[in-house]
Amino acid sequence: MEKILFLTGTRADFGKIKSLISILEAHQEFEVYVFVTGMHLQKEYGYTLIEIERCNFSNVHTFENHTHETTMDLTLAKTIQGLSEYCKEVDPDMIVIHGDRVETLAGAIVGSLNNILVAHIEGGELSGTVDELIRHSVSKLSHIHFVSNIDAAKRLLQMGEMKSSIYTIGSPDIDIMFSDHLPNLKEVKEYYQIPFEKYAIVMFHPVTTEVNEMKEYVANFVTALLDDIHNYVVIYPNNDLGSQCIIENYKQLSQNSRFRIFPSLRFEYFLTLLKSSQFIIGNSSAGIREAPYYGIPIINIGTRQQNRTLHADIINVGYDSKAIEKALKSIDCHHIQTSISDFGKGNSAELFLKSLLNPAIWKVNHQKQFRDI
């Protein structure tokens, strides 16, 4: 029985790996552990540990790695310490990590330096800002790569990764997006007490490389929203440095009947809301990855997704309030084509399981090799 340790630090990465954890939990070949840290344990951001506990996974361990707006290097150091201690207790055969968060980097460091196989979900992608630096660093520390598409696989080959270590499985959240088990819109609106017939979604995160300007950027954004006429479901930012000034500015929206503000939403409930929304505005990857699959118009603000916005018909604007207001006035007439399947066919979990059942994956050399092109 192979021991698989999944690491999750945010509501976003848990939405991506949930189906992967579930399919291994149901299989007798694997013993699954989930290391929960980061935003999941912060009440200000919805204490999303609750969503993980609802899944009834067998082995869930929590570790608080974050103090209020701790700098990323200190969060990294603390996560490394907590995860290393847990790995010594569990002795996993593989650590599975996702994406480009600082917790992801901690997982890659702990695994690679303790002779544990590291499997990275969605490496080889373009993120922009400091996230891209982290994502590619994680790829070089990882032994196995589960990528979302051929383009991502090609980038890993350019980085000197071995072709035999790359498995194209699609993006796991697509499994959930088109699941038959998503709640219906009426159920979601009743659960979250959302009174609007029509609404748009707001998701605006801090950009760590522009933290000194974030106060001005979010003030412009909130001004544009207040001057608009649409109803909005507003979701708190992630907990990166700069998030507090966003949350503070959102207080201006809280007394306005056109806005409903939430620290977090359950992933399946969020997908139902997104699917039925008029549009999504902000700088979240949800506007780049999920929204095009549903054919939802997107207003992308600023630089956070600048390298990921080429494949969809997206309105890109800067941080100026007038530019945002102009985009909002035209958004109701803006239509996009529903994205074709750039990120898989909704069977990522099955492909992930098939890969782990292949004995070859467990014989991957722990000593990384660089392959020249």
Can you give a write-up of this model?
The chain is 38% helix and 15% strand. With 373 residues, the protein is an alpha/beta fold.
In terms of topology, how is this protein built?
Blueprint: E1 2-8, H1 11-25, E2 30-36, H2 49-53, E3 60-62, H3 72-90, E4 94-98, H4 102-113, E5 117-121, H5 129-141, E6 144-147, H6 150-158, E7 166-168, H7 172-177, H8 185-192, E8 200-203, H9 214-226, E9 232-235, H10 243-250, E10 259-262, H11 267-275, E11 280-282, H12 290-294, E12 298-301, E13 315-317, H13 321-330, H14 348-357
Parallel strand pairs: 1-2, 1-4, 2-3, 4-5, 5-6, 6-7, 8-9, 8-11, 9-10, 11-12, 12-13
Features of the shown structure:
373 residues; alpha/beta; seven-stranded parallel β-sheet; six-stranded parallel β-sheet; globular
Characterize the biggest β-sheet: 7 strands, parallel
Order of the strands making up the biggest sheet: 3-2-1-4-5-6-7
Structural class: alpha/beta
Give the strand content.
15-25%
Unreliable spans are none
The proportion of residues forming helix, as a percent range, comes to: 25-40%
> Care to count the β-strands?
13
Radius of gyration: 20 Å
The backbone outline, from C-alpha atoms, is: globular
How many helices? The count is 14
Oligomer: single chain
The SSE string, one letter per element, is EHEHEHEHEHEHEHHEHEHEHEHEEHH
Distance between the termini: 36 Å
Mean pLDDT: 92
